[in-house]
Amino acid sequence: MKKAFILSIVLLILFVTACSNSADSLNGEADGSETGADTEEIELTFTTWGNEKHIEMYEKVLEEFHDEHPNITVKIQSIPHADYQQKISVLAAGQELPDVGWVAERMVPQFVQNGILRDVSVLKDDQDFEFDDFIPSTLELWEHDGALLGLPFSTPPMIFYYNKTLFEEAGIETPNEFVQKGEWTWEKFEEVSRELSKGEGSDRVYGARLFYEWTNFALMLSHTWAHGGDLFNDDMTEFTWDSPQGRNTLEMLDRMMFEDRSHVPPQEEINFESGKVGMFPFMYSYIANLRDITDFEWDIAPLPKGPEGRMPLLGQAGIVAFEDSQHPEEALELLKFLTSKKGIQASSTYFVPPRRSVLESDEFINVPNNPPRESIEMALINEMDKARVYPQHKDWTKIESEIISGFDQLFSQIAEPADILKEMKQNIDPILEQATN
User: Fold this and answer.
1) If you placed Cys at 155, which of 136, 263, 331, 354 could pair as Cys (CB 3.0 to 4.6 Å)?
2) Residue 84 scores a pLDDT above 90
3) CB 351, CB 315: distance < 8 Å
4) 192 three-state secondary structure
5) What residues contact 210, with CB distance under 8 A and at least 6 apart?
6) CA 132 vs CA 48, 137, 341: distances in Å
7) Distance between CA atoms of 296 and 166, rounded to whole angstroms?
8) CATH superfamily of 42-156+315-381
9) Sequence-distant (≥ 6) Cβ neighbours of residue 327 within 8 angstroms
10) pLDDT tens digits, residue range 354-383?
11) Where does CATH 3.40.190.10 sit in the chain?
């Protein structure tokens, strides 16, 4: 009896211990305290072509992401912009793509064709993400066949910088004053450029410079768009700049350079900061180069309008989640964080924000040495919905080379605008045709 009683006690203890261990094991799996997925140490790679200041900004903002996701470490990898597209393509071929990364507008056609951008449409229905806060024009580049293949973080529209001091000295109304009167047209721009121009030799002051680099003809497209023309037809099977609107654009440039001498001569590096250029168009991000100028007063204005209104070019860079990530859910969380209001607010120090709430915020507008709020609203905020993205084609490099060759002929005065555009068409149409076969 005694032995039987002792044996019963031992069996009871063993049973209770087993039940306790089983419960602990189940609890451990449920809360992730021992083997749950939340404790797995994960490293995500985030690629950019940013400079040191951009990377420092991201490192700081990612500290908060790490606080929210202590098991996730984000490695920032900077690749020079000139090498970025090729590098990503090589990584894709070797199935070594990063998890998340920057993508510029010119890279999108190839990456879409290669199928390496992940559909992140699920974010549209995420109430915490507030997708409706994105300005619609900033999303067009990333929407393909019903899929959302990325989200913008930098959306600078082209604007005019103008030397307010030169306008005052010449007794000419400023572009913003013409805007308020409804008179800021391309014809008025050309007229004002002539009136601002004066002097000779090294003392010459020019009314305008329409090129940042002599191979960058982006502003010319805004002039053509504003007059109802375009570079291609809708399905990009035909080069359509050889048109009355295209000729009008090149003829304006030809007049300003060689007849009126109101435009900086071809290949001469006389920039806006020198104080010898009245008006200069570029993206809003260029403002960082001007905030410390003390030699003259400057301001910003919207582009002139044509018969079809204003058509500023919208620069684009976005953040994407790449396909085949080993940690797709965590990569999506990182993309969501970087393009959230918080993430976009942090990056707005350097980039024009695509979220309206950030674009109109005091933090974005009231930066020291910025133009007045009224100018920013007039030139930037009110123009975002009218902006158009750069033409996208997988063979854009070849097409661009032919267009640049045409401008070289214009700059050298070896051909007339009509003949230049005709030759462009002869050389570019076969590229477009080959791309469709």
Assistant:
1) 354
2) yes
3) no
4) helix
5) 219, 220, 253, 263, 280, 281
6) 26, 12, 11
7) 8
8) Periplasmic binding protein-like II (3.40.190.10)
9) 42, 44, 99
10) 999 999 999 999 988 999 999 999 999 998
11) 42-156+315-381, 158-311+395-436
